[in-house]
TrEMBL record:
UniProt key word Signal: no
Name of the protein in question: FAD-dependent pyridine nucleotide-disulfide oxidoreductase
Domain of life where this protein originates: Archaea
Gene Ontology biological-process annotations: aerobic electron transport chain
C-alpha cells in the first residue's frame, strides 16, 4: 500500500510526521512525501529575512532530516487523477492508494493589470531577497529622502512585511544618511487584518502607524505600473517597489481552485485535501482561516483516519478490499476536524500584537508570545538546532551555528 502526501508545508510536514508514528511499519506499506523542494520553509518567519538574511538558513528545514521513515521525492505536482489514483509529477507518474493534498496556495492577482509583471509576491526566500535588494539599493543609492515602497494586502503576511520594511528603513543600511523608505500598506477592506476582532485590528493599526507605516484601508488597487500603484479613486500612488500579499488561489494541480470540503477533509474516499489548498468548513460549521495553525490542526485530525484506513486495508482480504474499494469512508473512520484557535500573533518589526481569547496584548507580552511560537514550532518538527539559532538571535547573541548555505 502506498500513502502519498503532496506538499511539504505546514499541513504536509505535520501529517507526514504524524503518519510515521501511526502507520504500521510493515514492509508493504510505503509512505512518500512529494515536495517541489527538499526543504520546508517556515513561511510565517519569512519577513525576518528582509532585515536578517542570515536567518534564511534557520527558517529552512531539510525534510529528510526531520522525517524517519517517509521517502522524500523532490518534484512538482502537475495533476492529480483521482479516478486512476495517480499523480503526474514533473519527473514522472506516482500511483497511490491513499493521498493527502497539502499543496498550499499561490498568490492571487485577481486579474489586476500589471501585478504579475511589476509586483513581487512574498511566498519564497527568493521573494524576500528580491525585496531586500530593492530596499538596500534605495537606501544606498537614491538621493531622495524617501523612496516609496507599497505593500498591497493587509492580512497577517502584509502586516509583517510592512513592519519589517519600516524597521529596515530605521536601521539604514546605506551610505546616504538622509535616505529612507516610506512604507504604505494598502487594504481594500475597511480595516487591516479583516478576518479578526476589532480590538486586534485597532492594536495592529496603532502599532503599524507608530512604526512609521502609512495605513490606507478601503482602498482598491486597479493596476500596477513600473513606478506606481493605480487606485480605484483614480489616484496614482508612487511606488519604487510593490509587494503583493493580496490574497491566495489554488495551485495549478487543482485547476487553480481551492476545493470546498467539510470536516472529513475528503475529496473522495481515498483522497483528502487540507491546509491552504482547500476551503474548509469544520465540524462546527465555521469557515476555517488559511493559516499555519489551522493547517497543522487539520493534519493532526486527519492522521488517525488515514492510519485506520491503512490498517483496515491490511486486515481484510483482497476480495473484500476490492468490494469496498469504491465505498465512502465510514462515519466511524472519517475525520471530524474542528478548528480551535489558541490565539493569533503578528510581528510589526521588533514589536508584536497578539490576541489570546478576548485579550489583546502588545509590548513585551506579545513579543514573548511571538518568540515562543517561533521556537515551539521548530522544536515540534524536530528542528531544535534552528530553534536555538532563532532564540540566540532574539537576545542579540552571536549565531553559533553554521549552515551550508550562504544567503
Amino acid at each position: 500500500m502506498h500513502v502519498v502526501v503532496l506538499g511539504g508545508g505546514y499541513a504536509g510536514l505535520t501529517l507526514t510526521r504524524e503518519l510515521e508514528k501511526r502507520v504500521p511499519t510493515d514492509a508493504d506499506i510505503e509512505l512518500t512525501l512529494v515536495n517541489d523542494s527538499p526543504d520546508h520553509l517556515v513561511q510565517h518567519e519569512l519577513h525576518r529575512v528582509l532585515r536578517r538574511p542570515e536567518l534564511a538558513n534557520a527558517i529552512t528545514v531539510s525534510l529528510p532530516a526531520v522525517l524517519d521513515r517517509a521517502t522524500v521525492r523532490v518534484a512538482r505536482v502537475e495533476a492529480i487523477d483521482r479516478e486512476r489514483r495517480t499523480v503526474r509529477l514533473s519527473d514522472g507518474t506516482l500511483p497511490y492508494d491513499i493521498a493527502a493534498v497539502c499543496l498550499g496556495a499561490r498568490t492571487a492577482t485577481h486579474g489586476i493589470a500589471g501585478v504579475r509583471k511589476h509586483a513581487t509576491p512574498f511566498k519564497r526566500l527568493a521573494d524576500a531577497f528580491a525585496v531586500r535588494a530593492r530596499a538596500r539599493e534605495a537606501l544606498r543609492e537614491h538621493d531622495d529622502t524617501e523612496t516609496p515602497f507599497v505593500v498591497c494586502g493587509a492580512g497577517l503576511s502584509g502586516i509583517q512585511v510592512a513592519g519589517e520594511l519600516a524597521a529596515l528603513a530605521r536601521e539604514g543600511h546605506g551610505s546616504n544618511a538622509d535616505a529612507t523608505l516610506s512604507i504604505t500598506l494598502i487594504e481594500q477592506f475597511d480595516t487591516v487584518a479583516p478576518q479578526f476582532d476589532s480590538s486586534f485590528q485597532r492594536a495592529v493599526t496603532d502599532t503599524l502607524e507608530s512604526a512609521g507605516v502609512t495605513v490606507r484601508t478601503g482602498t482598491a488597487v486597479t493596476r500596477v505600473t513600473p513606478s506606481a500603484v493605480g487606485l480605484e479613486s483614480g489616484e496614482e500612488l508612487p511606488a519604487e517597489c510593490v509587494v503583493w500579499t493580496g490574497g491566495i488561489r489554488g495551485t495549478d494541480a487543482l485547476d487553480r481552485e481551492r476545493p470546498p470540503v467539510g470536516p472529513a477533509l475528503e475529496l473522495d474516499e481515498r483522497t483528502f485535501v487540507l491546509g491552504d489548498a482547500a476551503r474548509v468548513t469544520d465540524a462546527e460549521g465555521e469557515a476555517v482561516p488559511a493559516s499555519a495553525q489551522s493547517a497543522m490542526q487539520a493534519a493532526r485530525a486527519l492522521a488517525p483516519t488515514i492510519a485506520r484506513l491503512v490498517s483496515d486495508e491490511r486486515d481484510v482480504s483482497d476480495e473484500h478490499a476490492q468490494s469496498r474499494g469504491t465505498e465512502s469512508v465510514s462515519a466511524s473512520v472519517s475525520a471530524n476536524f474542528a478548528f480551535d484557535s489558541p490565539g493569533w500573533v503578528v510581528s510589526v518589526g521588533d514589536e508584536a500584537v497578539a490576541q489570546v481569547g478576548s485579550n489583546v496584548l502588545t509590548g513585551r507580552g506579545a513579543r514573548l508570545l511571538k518568540t515562543g511560537v517561533r521556537l515551539r514550532y521548530l522544536a515540534a518538527i524536530g528542528a531544535a538546532d534552528r530553534a536555538a539559532v532563532l532564540a540566540r538571535e532574539e537576545v542579540g547573541r552571536r549565531l553559533p551555528f553554521e549552515f551550508d548555505r550562504d544567503p
